[in-house]
Description:
Blueprint (H helix, E strand, L loop, with lengths): L49 E5 L5 E5 L4 E3 L9 H7 L4 E4 L5 E5 L4 E3 L4 H10 L8 H29 L9 H8 L11 H39 L10 H8 L3 H5 L2 H40 L10 H8 L6 H4 L3 H31 L1
Antiparallel strand pairs: 1-2, 2-3, 4-5, 5-6
Helix pairs in contact: 2-3, 3-5, 8-11
Amino acid sequence: MYGVPSGSVGDLPSASTNSAGILAQPVQGTQPTIVIPSAPSQPVPIGLSWNEIQTADGRVYYFNSKSNLSQWEKPLELQSSSERIVGSTDWVEYKIWDGRTYFHNPKTKCSVWSTPPEVVIAQKTASNDIDNIDQEILDYDAFEKQQKSHAKKRLDFFNLLSENTTITEDTTFDDAMGSIKDDIRFHALVSIETKRIFYASYISHLMKGKIITERDSKRELFKLAIHDFQHWSGMNESTTHAQMESHFKRREWFKKLDKLDIRKLFELYSLEYMEILKIKRQQLQDTYMQQLKSHILENQDINISSENLVEDVFRKYKYSDEPFWNGLTDSQKLIVIKSCISQRIRETKLALAAAAASTRA
């Protein structure tokens, strides 16, 4: 009776207007967009600064000419006595284009066609007609209050436990009860079994919190250790774990972390360090090879077409102190020389082809 109205979802008022001009449910707490109204503003009581304005899509908002405030909700000064009664509950009453009324609860996001029990009770109470309220409505209201009461009691008991600093994840139920039994919130939950269940839930909450705290603390220590590894000038390919321990043994993270965690962390960092070092070396060698190639091609003293090109290049740079020569192996130097020969051959072929094309033209 008091759930979602019967019928399809399309029967419910939507958040926007349709082609028939159905008035939409106002967006709570938002500033409406001011547009030219398609209908004149409805009159308001004389002496008030509020104006009721209808937008082009049929929605209504309220504008205060004195404070320049615009809002979707109907101001308290303009509400009728029946509207104020509904406003005392969690429900808001709206009317659509065909005159039908529906109720919306902003807290639960629920909309219903029938009058909610809370509104019925508020209306009957205001008119001193409580005796004529249906028993079904009274039972429903009593059930809701009872559920809210139980939830409040459980929350109070949980807060009682959390406020007691002597209770830890190792504290037994009997020991904890001795320190909180004089608090009125302890007696809100009558059943001892209910108290045990909620106490077990609270201890589980403490244990999870402790695990999360320890995990976050260890993460911060790991970050400090990695930072120190990255900025350690003594780190190289042959650095041992013993050397690392000797250098960092006075650091905070070294004292707080387990020895096994430190060993695993250093091993992982060493592997990553070696991989990064390998990549950097490869990039440097690629740069050296490109520099050597450019130097050979641009050197007028080296004849690329010579049958003794390899011997000429090695003789030319034999005593060179250039990084691009000393930083490469002999096999890499041979690769560069072959690349120079291939490039010169391509250039020669392109020049001959261009000359032949020019002759034919």
